[in-house]
């Protein structure tokens, strides 16, 4: 398999073969490496389990650095708390790295924005406490950060409040714009030329929806609603915006890279994945967008790439009934990966995928999420590299699906437990 492409919508694996566990993420480029910070999720509950830091030379190969902020003994990210949407920026005035995050109780009823600091980008961050504006903690949940080209830092919150940070990034100095996106969550901002762009999702818990954006000549506005980020009904290509990273391509051009989450509650480690795509910018009308979904693309060129064709075998399973399974023997070459091809849809459930040696020893197993509010047919899962040999694949329906509830009790997520696969491909 080509090792130079970003694969969208499938879990990634680090150089130890563990799932890259960094969600609601951001990237900090430092000394020639990309540092990915995100929520270190668990597969069965939503309690804060830390914020992770991974690093990569190319946005494709990831190394786990550490838990940049482990669960704290007490305080806003202590026991029985939630920690989300971690963002990190290097403060130009102090040279320190400042981490911002949403801390909350398990019912999301005690929201706070908190800050932590470190002298090294990949060090362990020290909790400072709530981020304050005029001495008062900012009691908001979803948040994002943005660093302008002159180094000025901003914090954005749900509903669309934008704060300019103090020079040391440790307090919010001025509320420069307020309530620009009522009902909006997961703010992500960037600057393209002299235009500032901010994206929001709608409030549908872990579900995906059609995210939208506004633009302005300055972070203070005036902000104008500009429309959807991706085609209507695509649910932002089945993702929720989290961050916009200015990506420098091999030819020196910089393109804004959209970073979104494809959540999979409650199995966020095994099945939540990333959707990263270069944002298309049109200088005629100053608009941005994600007109096409690329399952794979090359971060050196900013162009779509073809998933390797590889050897393909039929692997047909279409069932919602618990415990139905198919078994398939296959052999693979050194460092080949097994890709599962099928359809995800509104009624999709979780499948259990197991790869075992002929003697029955399991070498890899994972849940595979077949749910997506917008149907998709293609690669649903790619396992880590295998060693050459003979294996048996088992794909089994679990009778379980990604289902979750809004604060008001509305049920969201999958309407069924269907697993639909057609083939496997060795790539
Ligand atoms: C939507 C937010 O964007 C996520 O970060 C998370 O808090 C979920 N809600 C929880 O339902």
Any chance you could write out the topology, listing elements then pairs?
Blueprint (H helix, E strand, L loop, with lengths): L5 E2 L15 E8 L2 E7 L11 E6 L6 E7 L11 E10 L6 E9 L6 E7 L7 E5 L1 E2 L2 E2 L5 E5 L5 E5 L4 E4 L6 E6 L7 E8 L2 E7 L10 E5 L7 E5 L6 H4 L1 E9 L5 E9 L10 E6 L1 E3 L4 E3 L6 E3 L4 E2 L6 E9 L5 E8 L5 E7 L5 E7 L5 E8 L6 E7 L6 E9 L5 E3 L5 E3 L5 E8 L1
The chain binds (2R,3S,4R,5S)-2-(hydroxymethyl)piperidine-3,4,5-triol.
CATH architect. name of the largest domain = 5 Propeller
CATH fold-level topology of the largest domain? Tachylectin-2, Chain A
User: What share of the residues does DSSP label as strand, in percent?
Assistant: over 45%
**How many structural domains are formed by the residues?**
2
Question: Mind summarizing the main beta sheet?
Answer: 4 strands, antiparallel
Label the structural class: mainly beta
Main β-sheet, spatial strand arrangement: 2-3-4-5
Distance between the termini: 5 Å
* CATH homolog superfamily of the largest domain: Glycosyl hydrolase domain, family 43
Radius of gyration: 21 Å
Protein name: Glycosyl hydrolase family 43
Keywords: Hydrolase
GO molecular function: hydrolase activity
Question: What characteristics describe this protein?
Answer:
single chain; 427 residues; mainly beta; Tachylectin-2, Chain A; Jelly Rolls; 2 domains; four-stranded antiparallel β-sheet; 1 helix; 36 strands; binds (2R,3S,4R,5S)-2-(hydroxymethyl)piperidine-3,4,5-triol; hydrolase activity; Glycosyl hydrolase family 43; hydrolase; Glyco_hydro_beta-prop_sf
């Amino acid at each position: 398999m080509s090792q130079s492409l970003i694969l969208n919508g499938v879990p990634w694996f680090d150089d130890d073969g563990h799932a890259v566990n960094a969600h609601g993420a951001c990237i900090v480029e430092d000394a020639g490496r990309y540092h990915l910070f995100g929520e270190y999720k668990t597969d069965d509950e939503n309690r804060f389990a830390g914020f992770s830091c991974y690093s990569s030379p190319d946005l494709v190969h990831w190394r786990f650095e550490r838990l940049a902020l482990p669960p704290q003994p007490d305080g806003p990210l202590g026991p029985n708390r939630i920690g989300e949407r971690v963002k990190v920026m290097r403060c130009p005035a102090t040279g320190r790295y400042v981490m911002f995050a949403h801390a909350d109780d398990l019912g999301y009823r005690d929201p706070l924005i908190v800050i932590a600091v470190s002298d090294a980008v990949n060090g362990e961050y020290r909790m400072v406490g709530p981020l304050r504006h005029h001495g008062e903690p900012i009691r908001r949940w979803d948040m994002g950060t943005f660093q302008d080209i002159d180094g000025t830092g901003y914090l954005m919150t749900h509903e669309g409040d934008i704060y300019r940070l103090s020079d040391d990034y440790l307090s919010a100095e001025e509320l420069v714009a307020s309530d620009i996106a009522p009902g909006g969550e997961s703010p992500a901002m960037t600057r393209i030329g002299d235009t500032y762009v901010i994206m929001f999702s709608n409030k549908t818990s872990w579900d995906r929806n059609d995210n939208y954006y506004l633009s302005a000549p300055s972070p203070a506005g005036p902000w104008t609603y500009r429309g959807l980020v991706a085609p209507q009904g695509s649910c932002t290509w089945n993702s929720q915006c989290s961050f916009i990273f200015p990506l420098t391509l091999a030819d020196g051009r910089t393109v804004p890279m959209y970073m979104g989450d494809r959540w999979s509650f409650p199995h966020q480690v095994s099945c939540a994945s990333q959707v990263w795509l270069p944002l298309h910018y049109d200088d005629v009308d100053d608009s941005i967008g994600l007109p096409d979904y690329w399952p794979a693309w090359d971060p050196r060129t900013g162009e779509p790439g073809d998933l390797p064709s590889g050897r393909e075998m039929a692997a047909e399973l279409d069932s919602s009934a618990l415990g139905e399974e198919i078994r398939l023997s296959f052999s693979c070459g050194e460092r080949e990966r097994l890709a599962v091809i099928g359809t995800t849809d509104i009624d999709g459930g979780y499948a259990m995928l197991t790869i075992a040696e002929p003697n029955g020893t399991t070498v890899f197993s994972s849940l595979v999420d077949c749910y997506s509010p917008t149907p998709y047919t293609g690669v649903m899962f790619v396992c880590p590299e295998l060693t050459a040999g003979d294996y048996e694949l088992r794909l089994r329906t679990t009778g379980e699906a990604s289902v979750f509830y809004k604060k008001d009790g509305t049920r969201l997520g999958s309407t069924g437990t269907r697993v639909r696969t057609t083939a496997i491909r060795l790539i």
